[in-house]
Amino acid sequence: xxxxxxxxxxxxxxxxxxxxxxxxxxxxxxxxxxxxxxxxxxxxxxxxxxxxxxxxxxxxxxxxxxxxxxxxxxxxxxxxxxxxxxxxxxxxxxxxxxxxxxxxxxxxxxxxxxxxxxxxxxxxxxxxxxxxxxxxxxxxxxxxxxxxxxxxxxxxxxxxxxxxxxxxxxxxxxxxxxxxxxxxxxxxxxxxxxxxxxxxxxxxxxxxxxxxxxxxxxxxxxxxxxxxxxxxxxxxxxxxxxxxxxxxxxxxxxxxxxxxxxxxxxxxxxxxxxxxxxxxxxxxxxxxxxxxxxxxxxxxxxxxxxxxxxxxxxxxxxxxxxxxxxxxxxxxxxxxxxxxxxxxxxxxxxxxxxxxxxxxx
Length: 361
Fold this sequence. Notes:
The protein has 361 residues and is of the alpha/beta class. The protein folds into three domains: 4-164, Spore Coat Polysaccharide Biosynthesis Protein SpsA, Chain A, CATH 3.90.550; 171-243; 260-361, Tetratricopeptide repeat domain (Serine Threonine Protein Phosphatase 5, Tetratricopeptide repeat), CATH 1.25.40. Helix content is 46%, strand content 17%. The chain has helices at 17-24, 42-46, 62-71, 89-101, 174-184, 191-203, 207-218, 225-241, 245-254, 263-275, 279-291, 304-307, 310-321, 325-338, 343-354, and strands at 4-10, 30-35, 53-55, 77-80, 85-86, 108-117, 123-134, 140-142, 148-150, 155-164. It has an eight-stranded mixed β-sheet, sandwiched between helices. Strands 8-9 form a two-stranded antiparallel sheet. The radius of gyration is 23 Å and the shape is globular. The two termini are 45 Å apart. The mean pLDDT is 95. It holds the Pfam family Glycos_transf_2.
């Protein structure tokens, strides 16, 4: 069985740190906590779980702090978590199995990262991250903000999931201030930094500047295709919000330049035609959406709703408008099979039951 060091960087995480460490303590052989300037009870909580608590002066560089935490590890592999992450009981069992079967030929293990859980226990958004790495490989972190670890060699994709459950709201301008400092230093942004700087601008409602970054990214040959797809999604979201549907449609189709069609975009193309009351074409795109298969080991950002129940409920709406109640009912039933506690679908169910249809749910 391999041995594992858990390495974490923390600051003012008294609300979540104990919850995280309770999830992980039985999975690892060593816990390393690096505090970057807490003023609450974070350090006191950390010391309940480990005597390996270190201090690192915050220099507005997440990669530097994470590399320092990795430098303190002594076990064969390093697991990293953030304080507001949790590991469900199911994933803890999967993790223990993984730990038992993993051998030293593995250089990195990816795990799913789930953001937001809906009423059915399904993540609103998920993607993969390199989460467990071989210590002797000395893999390094890069990026002052939205940092990432650069790995190579034998990488395996596991079925373990880490779930992000935020309680505390971070200082809202923290990341944006880091980017502003980089600009003041005449730092030349790489493609990843262009993308995440655009995201920070977008989140701060600085839309014109954000769009400049996203369109710049789309013209960069060095940009990762998944970042380009995500930028397209942001542009679709923005142009939809300001009621410029043709601009939104343009970026839906542009996303097809970078990979096979994604459910998120096929669905939104369907919405364009639905809003134009062109139901036949809308139905075509919604039906296409239902046939797409979400990549099992994909590295992109995937919203499960688009890959499961959402296109079916829109097909229900379209067929109902056409007077094809049997087909509409069929698709609402299919949507319920994915999301049985969804209030919209349950309202639809009552509507069709009043028409004489018998639901399985």
